[in-house]
From TrEMBL:
The lineage of its organism: Bacteria, Pseudomonadati, Pseudomonadota, Alphaproteobacteria, Hyphomicrobiales. Keywords: Membrane, Transmembrane, Transmembrane helix. The keyword Cell inner membrane does not apply. The keyword Transmembrane applies. The chain holds residues 464 to 712 of 729 of the full protein. This is Diguanylate cyclase (GGDEF)-like protein. It comes from Kaistia hirudinis. It comes from the Bacteria. Residues 1-249 form the EAL domain.
Length: 249
């Protein structure tokens, strides 16, 4: 409860910031996009993990202002990164808000950023609860130009046939599968089947949570096109992304 009270003033007090984690092409480690991840440095609680405060933000409705803050911040930061795509996490509660698509489109327009530079990261839970409404909302976002990415793939309930009905451009293999890579034959087979599924449906596949060189090597062998994780790069401030891109040329 105290967290909720402190969070209420966090946006206006400038306690929130956005970190970015690179997503790279497995073959040559080119940075193709970054994922925006909100950070909260509270004078009262210190650094609070989004895993702890996002659920509070969802319950209290603060997620809408936080979501707009993250999106606005990303729009400003992207001006320094020509052509780079940015993934934005979107909670089910945000998508349920009737003005969500219009608000995001307006912020992008105001900052002169085209919607196709974004990938909105959504989770399966959202699709399962009300597939008909979800389908309509995703179609609308897609028609506005936003890219769509299915996050934490494999942890929910959606079947293959189900995934087919939604207009995703990207799917992200959940880090729990990557963590098991090489430890048992089943996890390799599961990742292999998710990669094959992406290929069949013409959806780009990203594996998340790569923490070791061995995991990266195995994903290369499995021909997973894109990877993300601490082994490649940690979430970093915008200025470090700018420096990284300059260094890579
Ligand atoms: O950054 P970290 O890995 O600690 O994130 C923990 C969780 O918080 C993840 O599930 C991530 O998707 C979520 N998260 C991080 N940033 C945002 C954000 O800007 N909006 C929403 N809705 N969720 C976020
Ligand atoms: O739910 P979502 O997939 O959006 O969560 C993203 C979270 O995963 C972020 O909080 C990010 O900090 C975290 N993350 C990114 N790379 C790694 C990694 O290699 N290992 C682990 N354990 N977490 C990671
Ligand atoms: Na995500
Ligand atoms: Mn994820």
């Amino acid at each position: 409860k105290r967290l909720g009270v402190a969070l209420r003033t966090a946006v206006e007090a400038g306690e929130l910031s956005v970190a970015y984690q690179p997503i790279v092409r497995t073959s040559d480690l080119t940075v193709i996009s970054v994922e925006a991840l909100v950070r909260w440095d509270s004078p009262e609680f210190g650094r609070v993990s989004p895993a702890d405060f996002i659920p509070v933000a969802e319950e209290t409705g603060l997620i809408h202002d936080i979501g707009k803050f993250v999106f606005q911040t990303a729009c400003q930061d992207m001006a320094e990164w020509p052509g780079l795509k940015v993934s934005i996490n979107v909670s089910p509660a945000q998508l349920r808000e009737p003005n969500f698509a219009n608000d995001f489109a307006a912020i992008a327009r105001r900052n002169a950023v085209v919607p196709n530079r974004f990938k909105l990261e959504l989770t399966e839970g959202l699709l399962v609860r009300n597939p008909t409404i979800a389908k309509r909302k995703l179609a609308r976002l897609k028609s506005m130009g936003f890219g769509l990415s299915l996050d934490d793939f494999g942890t929910g309930f959606s079947s293959i046939g189900y995934l087919r009905q939604f207009p995703f451009d990207w799917l992200k293999i959940d880090k729990s599968f990557v963590a098991e890579l090489g430890t048992n034959p089943t996890s390799n087979a599961l990742i292999q089947s998710m990669i094959a599924l992406g290929d069949a449906l013409d959806i780009a596949v990203v594996a998340e949570g790569i923490e070791t060189a061995e995991q990266l090597q195995l994903l290369r062998l499995l021909q997973c096109e894109y990877v993300q994780g601490f082994h490649l790069a940690r979430p970093m401030p915008a200025s470090e992304v700018t420096a990284l891109l300059a260094r890579l040329g």
